[in-house]
Amino acid sequence: MSEDKPHGMPQFGASGRKIVYDENGKPCRTCNTLLDFRSITNNATSKAAAGAAVVTATASVLATNVPSDCPPDVEELGRSTWTLLHSIAATYPEKPTDAQKDNLKTFMKSFSNLYPCFYCADDFREYMNKEKIQVTNRDEFGKWLCNAHNAVNVKIGKPVFDCQLWKERWKDGWKDGRCD
Amino acid sequence: MSEDKPHGMPQFGASGRKIVYDENGKPCRTCNTLLDFRSITNNATSKAAAGAAVVTATASVLATNVPSDCPPDVEELGRSTWTLLHSIAATYPEKPTDAQKDNLKTFMKSFSNLYPCFYCADDFREYMNKEKIQVTNRDEFGKWLCNAHNAVNVKIGKPVFDCQLWKERWKDGWKDGRCD
């Protein structure tokens, strides 16, 4: 994988974000949003998008009508992965054995080495080096993971989540009963 | 976690499937479908669902209008997890180093120990004991994983996928261009 732009290929997508290319010089699906991926792979639309005035209109056309049996873009991959990770926190024991603690640490470390979006994986490894993973019990890990998720939210301009509420969001559902 | 039915709680959900309860005797969110979870937690509807004739109507009401910020049920968790795993296959190297092979094996083993739906995790560990994981290269792992997914599809009555096509589905998109 590489972030270098191959010769003759655009540097930015319809969203204005830099396009990430794979080792063969193709735009990487799991590293770009579908909108940006499409703005590069769909030539006709890509040409239209070169005029800044039409970028917004183009964006709304490009981002719709995605069949559900297509490879995920970076956003779907992110949503799916946080769903798995927070659910792992939700079912992690309140009093884990040493073996369970070791297994969770091993899982998170190996995960950070093979997450499909390579620059996201780089960022996550950096976070793990800076903020030591907490595996003492369910709540400690749940909050550590919630903080890790928030660090990504800040980076991509999404709202920060109140980590006191992680169990309502990922384990028990909200107290107003809307998840029941 | 336990599959034992606590005293006074129903054994089957609105779908007719057995309800899985957690260690506190509550229905487990990540082990049941949302439909079944709701048929147990929503008392009024649960009583209505006791009459077999209204189960279908009840089912369609129960399964709709789920806020996106609720804990995932067993189906959403499954979809999310396969999305991550197949994407890992799609970006796994064509010529991995020994360290990359070891990391993938470690990841899959630790994953099988902590997957949030405990009876799904039991089945997956059993599959891994029977069908040795293939990590030689991208295509070998992608096909092994596709076969593992198909074993689950068979178990839950879903269609089997043609594993020759795993890269179209999870890496490159379909040749008819509908993913581009």
Automatic annotation (TrEMBL), chains A, B:
<keyword id="KW-1015">Disulfide bond</keyword>
<dbReference type="Pfam" id="PF04777">
    <property type="entry name" value="Evr1_Alr"/>
</dbReference>
<dbReference type="InterPro" id="IPR039799">
    <property type="entry name" value="ALR/ERV"/>
</dbReference>
<dbReference type="GO" id="GO:0050660">
    <property type="term" value="F:flavin adenine dinucleotide binding"/>
</dbReference>
<dbReference type="InterPro" id="IPR036774">
    <property type="entry name" value="ERV/ALR_sulphydryl_oxid_sf"/>
</dbReference>
<keyword id="KW-0274">FAD</keyword>
<keyword id="KW-0496">Mitochondrion</keyword>
<keyword id="KW-0560">Oxidoreductase</keyword>
<dbReference type="GO" id="GO:0016971">
    <property type="term" value="F:flavin-dependent sulfhydryl oxidase activity"/>
</dbReference>
<keyword id="KW-0285">Flavoprotein</keyword>
<dbReference type="InterPro" id="IPR017905">
    <property type="entry name" value="ERV/ALR_sulphydryl_oxidase"/>
</dbReference>
<protein>
    <recommendedName>
        <fullName>Sulfhydryl oxidase</fullName>
        <ecNumber>1.8.3.2</ecNumber>
    </recommendedName>
</protein>
<feature type="domain" description="ERV/ALR sulfhydryl oxidase">
    <location>
        <begin position="70"/>
        <end position="170"/>
    </location>
</feature>
<dbReference type="GO" id="GO:0005758">
    <property type="term" value="C:mitochondrial intermembrane space"/>
</dbReference>
